[in-house]
Design brief:
Distance between the termini: 40 Å
Strand order of the largest sheet: 4-11-8-9
Number of helices: 9
CATH architecture of the largest domain: Alpha-Beta Complex
Helix content: 25-40%
Structural class: alpha+beta
CATH topology of the largest domain: Adenine-n6-DNA-methyltransferase TaqI, Chain A, domain 2
Number of strands: 24
Number of domains: 2
Strand content: 15-25%
Radius of gyration: 26 Å
Largest sheet: 4 strands, antiparallel
Shape: elongated
């Protein structure tokens, strides 16, 4: 049974609501101040970044995100400082709050606040983090880019419970956060195994056929091995053409996006990162087209790059759009190129400094071609054999969403006193007080989209 306080009062703060009677409310500036100290002499070389995984160490020789011309413009942060990114608040899917784990330097665009006196910094980190999770900063932002100033930030009212209760709240949150992240990681591992199972089924079907009763022949291609004797091998240019139809005049309004090997409809308000000034620069695609994310093969060898279009719409022109010749089964071609994707075939075809894949590179790719009726049989076989796997993946993903939502509610309830964390028996963990939050639930599912590039220092 959830414990609650015996008496509550109205905090007078819309995002806090009712709070325990014994809690004070103070403006942030009573406890914190904003300072900015530049790394002018370049003496600090420990680059940190505020990401959806929290504050992380960033390798200046192989950085995440965009990098400055000169780290002298960066500002110094100390261990246990709070860091905020409070620009472009209309962007709902970016990091906003972090607790600095060690001395370092970070973007001058960030806001640094430090305690005026000794405080339980983790309690106030969770209090500010709660406002981020619930989108409060986004609601308060002003101006063209919806921004909160450092002064706006430290003028926000905060709850300030007695110190002992702050400690109990932090222990309560950390213990439960650790369990939630463990559960999410377990489900992510299960999803990874299920994807591997599905990929193995697809690869075997499109590269070796679905029956063992056929004779095989050498394909002449090292990464393909033997293939059914009656199959033919053609080159990409013999079966596909490159389609380039710009959205001039905004003919199409449905924005599509490549996410985890699927082409999905993306509401414009959910786009994050860099978006074009006009969607006229996007290309029009139609059901049956195949999309390949063909950029940056050198630096990104993990994400899925192939998707089959099922809805007419527009997608970034950075992608390669393939139009199939008559007589080809779109689903078979997608499964084949998906198998190539999983086998990392594309990474040997790219050209240029960053190994981008153009149609001129794709043209020489060998394509396995069973007879038309066998293409249909292979698609049917794959769909039937992978249905349970796909259903299981969807269920696990829904469970992860529920766990994330539970985490948001739990932090809110704890830091606002909706539950009484004092004397609650905590779940048994081995590292309460020193949680290493891993990249498991940071809503990064769509970072594979090329048009959704993460902003500087994200």
């Amino acid at each position: 049974m959830v414990k609650v306080y015996s008496q509550y009062k109205d905090s007078g703060i819309p995002w806090l609501g009712q709070v325990p009677t014994g809690w004070d409310q103070v403006r942030g500036k009573v406890l914190f101040k904003n300072i900015k100290e530049l790394n002018a002499d370049r003496s600090n070389t420990n680059v940190l970044s505020l990401t959806l995984r929290g504050v992380v160490n960033n390798n200046p020789d192989d950085p995440e995100g965009l990098v400055p011309k000169d780290y002298a413009t960066y500002q110094i942060f100390r261990k246990d400082d709070l860091v905020f990114k409070l620009i472009d608040l209309e962007n709902l899917s970016t990091s906003r709050v972090g607790l600095v784990h060690e001395d370092g330097i970070m973007s001058p665009a960030y806001v640094r606040i430090v305690p005026r006196k000794k405080v339980n910094i983790k309690f106030f980190y969770y209090s500010f983090f709660d406002l981020y999770l619930r989108g409060i900063y986004n609601q308060l932002g002003a101006g063209v880019r919806a921004t909160l100033s450092p002064n706006d930030l430290i003028n926000l009212k905060l709850s300030n419970p007695p110190e002992e209760e702050q400690r109990s709240i932090v222990q309560f949150i950390e213990a439960h956060e650790l369990l939630i992240h463990r559960y999410i990681n377990t489900k992510r591992r299960e999803i990874k195994l299920l994807h591997e199972q599905r990929n193995a089924i697809v690869k075997k079907a499109v590269c070796n056929g679905i029956t063992s009763k056929v004779r095989l022949k050498p394909s002449g291609i090292n990464w393909l091995g033997e293939i059914p004797e009656h199959w033919t091998t053609l080159h990409g240019f013999e079966l596909f053409g490159e389609k380039q139809q710009k959205n001039t005049g905004m003919i199409e309004q449905t924005i599509l996006s490549l996410s985890y090997g699927r082409i999905i409809i993306r509401p414009i308000e959910k786009l994050h990162g860099l978006v074009p000034a006009s969607f006229e620069t996007y290309q029009i695609v139609e059901p049956g087209d195949i999309i390949i994310r063909s950029t940056d093969l050198q630096n990104d060898k993990t994400s899925l790059r192939v998707g089959l279009v099922r809805n007419k719409g527009i997608i970034t022109s950075a992608y390669l759009c393939l139009k199939m010749k008559e007589g080809l089964n779109p689903n078979y071609c997608y499964y084949l190129l998906h198998a190539y994707d999983v086998m990392k075939v594309f990474y040997g075809l790219g050209s240029g400094l960053r190994q981008n894949l153009g149609f001129i590179d794709f043209k020489r790719l060998p394509i396995l071609l069973p007879p038309p009726e066998e293409q249909i049989e292979i698609v049917r076989f794959i769909d039937e054999k992978t249905k349970d796997v796909v259903d299981s993946i969807e269920c696990l993903e829904k469970e992860i969403v529920l766990l994330r939502n539970y985490r948001v509610r739990l932090i809110f309830d704890a830091v606002t006193g909706k539950i009484d964390a004092r004397n609650i028996k905590l779940p048994i963990t081995n590292c309460v007080g020193d949680i290493k939050i891993v990249k498991d639930d940071a809503n990064l599912k769509d970072v594979e989209d090329a048009e959704e590039v993460v902003n500087a220092d994200e």
